[in-house]
Design goal:
The complex is a heterodimer of chains A (89) and B (422).
Chain A lengths: L1 E6 L4 H16 L4 E6 L5 H5 L6 E2 L1 E5 L5 E6 L4 H12 L1
Parallel strand pairs in A: 1-2
Antiparallel strand pairs in A: 1-4, 4-5
Chain B lengths: L2 H14 L17 E7 L4 H16 L3 E7 L4 H14 L8 E4 L2 E4 L4 H18 L47 E4 L3 E4 L5 H13 L5 H11 L5 H33 L3 H24 L5 E2 L4 H14 L4 H20 L4 H11 L5 H15 L1 H13 L7 H24 L8
Parallel strand pairs in B: 1-2
Antiparallel strand pairs in B: 1-3, 3-4, 5-6
Helix pairs in contact in B: 5-11, 5-12, 5-14, 6-7, 6-9, 6-13, 7-10, 7-11, 7-12, 7-13, 8-11, 8-14, 9-10
Classes of the chains: A alpha+beta (89), B alpha+beta (422).
Amino acid sequence: MHVLKIGAVWCPACLVMRPRWALIEKEFPNITTSYLEFDEAHPLIHAYNVNESVLPVFIFLNEEGEEIKRMNGEVSKEAITQFITSQQS
Amino acid sequence: MTKTMRILAFFFAILVVPALPFQPIHAQSDLHTVPIYFFKSEGCPHCAKEAFFLSQLAKEKPHIRIVEFEVGLNPSNGRLLRDIGNLLRKDVSGVPFTIIGNKTFSGFQSTETTGKELEWHISICETEGCPDPIAQLLPNNSTIGEGTHSDQSHSFETKSDDSIPPSSEQLSPDKTFTVPFIGTLNLKHLSLPILTVLLALIDGFNPCALWILLFLISLLLGMKQRTKMWALGSVFIASSAGVYALFMVAWLNILFFISVLPFVRIAVAALAFIAGGCHLYTLLSKPANGCSIVSNEKRTTMFARVRSILERKSFILSLLGIVGLAFAVNLIELLCSAGIPVVYTHILATTNLPTWRYYLYILLYILVFMLDDLLIFISAMVLLRMVGVTTKYVRTAQLIGGIIMILIGFFLIWKPEWLLFG
C-alpha cells in the first residue's frame, strides 16, 4: 500500500498529523508514503483530483496505484491503523 | 517678658493676627446650601465616575444638594439642559455636565482633576454662597429641599435609581444571570485582569495571521545559522505584536473622546454581536478537523516575498524586510480579528484607571494574545521541527469566544454598568 499525503506548511492540522504518521510508518514498515506540498501544484495533486476544501488529504493507493480510500483533516491514529490493518488482513 | 515686649505683643495680637490668611472656621450652621445640577446619560461611563464621586462627596458635605437629570432617555431633561446652555451661553452638547452656581463643568476626567475643581468650587459656594440661576428654569420654580441626597431628590423627570450606572459601591450584590446549556454565571467575580486574559487568549487562537508565521518558521528551519533563525523569527513576532498594540492604543485614545456618546456603546455592542456570530458561524460551517483551502494567489505572492526577504545577503536588510512584512500582513489581517480588540478597548476606556495602567493592560493583552505564536516559534526553534495546535483547541476557543462576545454585546446594551470596572 502506498499513501499520498498532501498538506501545506501553513496548515496547523498538517503539522499535527506529521508525528502521528511517523508512528504509523514505524508500526507498518511495509507501507510507503510520499508527501506533496499543496501550494507547489504537483501533477499528482491534479491527477488525483485533490479539490477538497480541507487539508491534509491522505489518499490510500493499492499496488496498482488505484485509490482505495481517502481521508481528510486531523484523523486519529487509531482510525488510520484500523483501516490499514483491515486492508492487510 | 519685659514691658516693651508685652506692648508689642498686644499690638501684634490686635493688628497683625486678624490679617493672617487663616482658614476661617465656619460653624456648620453658617454654611450655605449648594445645589449641584448634574446632567448625565444612561450608559455614559464618565457620568458613572462623576455619580460615584458626587455620592461620596455628599456623605462628607451635608450641605450639598445633588439633583440629577438623565438626558439620554428623557427628552424633557434634554430640553432643560439646552435651556440652561442658552441661559449660561455654554456648549451643552456632552455629558456629564455639572452646574454649581454660575460655574459649569463639562465632562469628568478623574477625582484628582475634575473632582478637585468641583470640590474647590463647592467649598467657595458653601462659605460665600453662590447664585442659583438654574432655579428659575426648573418646573414650578421649585427649590431644593433640605436634607436630601441625589437618590432622594428626584423631583423632576429623572428615571428611577436603577437606571443610574452604579459605582462600585452601589453595584447590585447580585450580578448573576443564567446562560442556557451553561448555567448560572456571576459576574461579581469577573475582574478586569481576568477579562483581559480571557479575551486575549480567545483572540490569540484566531488563526488569521498564523499561516504566514508557520511559513516563515518552515523557511527559518532550513537556515544553517541558528542566531539568524532566532533573530528573524523574534523580530517578526515582536513586529506583529507592535502592530496590534499600536492599533489598540490608537483605538483606546479615540474611545477616550467618543465613548461618552451613546451611539458608540451601541456600535461596539453591534460589533460584539457580529464578531460573536462570526465565531459561531465559522465553528459550524468550517471543517471540523482540518485547514480550509482558500485561494492561493495571495499566499503564493506572500510566500515569494518572504523567500526573497530571507535570501538577502544583508542581515540588516532581512531584518527590515521582516518588520515590513509583519506590519503588512498584520494590518491586512486586522480586519479578520478586529472585533475582540475593539470591544476590549471600549471596556478598558470606560474603566477609571491611571493612564499608565491602561497601557499596562494593553501590554498584558498583547503578551497573552501572542502566547500561542511564541509557543509555536520557540518550540520549533528548540526542537528544530514544526509543531501544531490541534484543531480541537482552536474550535473550543471559537465556541467560548463566540458566546462571550455575544454576552458582552447584551451587557453593553442592557447592562452597561456590569462592564464598568471601577
